[in-house]
Specification:
Blueprint lengths: L3 H39 L13 H11 L7 H20 L3 H10 L5
Helix pairs in contact: 1-3, 1-4, 2-3
Keywords: Membrane, Transmembrane, Transmembrane helix
Length: about 110
């Protein structure tokens, strides 16, 4: 009876860690999709499809191609900045040692 509670506790802790990290990764992916969708709705000329994860660098380039004479609006710049920050945080998270195991098992890859 001595080691069974220890193994159960350790297994439960591992399961909780796995579920917490998986939820965090899913939230970041969903946030990236949500911000990309908002940009696509606000600026249909950028050809961003709903539910698609858009690259912030490509959005800036497309804006400059489509609107060469206009500056990017402040609200759009804030959304692009949020995309960049979220992408950076997500990619840094899945590079760290215990988190990349969860990402690999769950099928998450870099954005």
């Amino acid at each position: 009876m001595g080691f069974i509670p220890i193994f159960l506790t350790l297994g439960g802790a591992c399961l909780l860690f796995f579920l917490t990290v998986r939820t965090t990764l899913q939230r970041k992916v969903n946030l990236q999709r949500e911000i990309s969708s908002k940009l696509g709705i606000n600026h249909p000329e950028l050809d961003i499809f709903l539910g698609e994860i858009a690259d912030p660098e490509l959005i800036s380039k497309k804006w400059k191609e489509v609107h060469a004479d206009k500056k990017i609006p402040k609200k759009t710049l804030e959304q692009i900045k949020a995309l960049k920050i979220n992408k950076l945080q997500y990619n840094q998270l899945i590079k760290k040692a215990p988190y990349n195991w969860v990402a690999k098992i769950s099928g998450y890859s870099a954005i």
